[in-house]
């Protein structure tokens, strides 16, 4: 197991990220005491068993009104002018 101090968290965060990407864990030290353990997040894939329920949930999160691609820039600029003048 590797160790990292609270000061090193600020200066060596990229090293910590690499260790976590490789699946390693790191003990966190503050004032010469181990105060915690940093571990990579566990990925728990969700198995889709009911296709109808999945399609229904997907339809609920999709936007109701889609703006055509060529109108997006015009609408964006218009909203900016309304908000900021």
Characterize the structure shown.
With 85 residues, the chain is of the alpha+beta class. The protein folds into 2 domains: 2-38, YefM-like fold (3-Layer(aba) Sandwich), CATH 3.40.1620; 51-84, no CATH class. It is 49% helix and 18% strand. The chain is built from 4 helices and 3 strands; from the N terminus they run βααββαα. It has helices spanning 6-11, 13-21, 51-61, 69-84, and strands at residues 2-5, 26-30, 33-38. It has a 3-stranded mixed β-sheet. A hairpin with a 2-residue loop joins β2 (26-30) and β3 (33-38). The chain is flat. The model has no long low-confidence stretch (mean pLDDT 89).
Main traits of this protein?
alpha+beta; three-stranded mixed beta sheet; 85 residues; flat; 4 helices; single chain; YefM-like fold
What proportion of the residues form beta strands (DSSP E)? 15-25%
Estimated helix fraction: 40-55%
**Helix count, per DSSP?**
4
Average pLDDT, all residues: 89
Annotated CATH topology of the largest domain: YefM-like fold
Rg is: 23 Å
Give the N-terminus to C-terminus distance in angstroms. 56 Å
Number of domains: 2
What would you call the shape? flat
Major sheet strand order: 1-2-3
Unreliable segments of 5+ consecutive residues: none
DSSP E strands, number: 3
Structural class: alpha+beta
Under the CATH scheme, the architecture of the largest domain is 3-Layer(aba) Sandwich
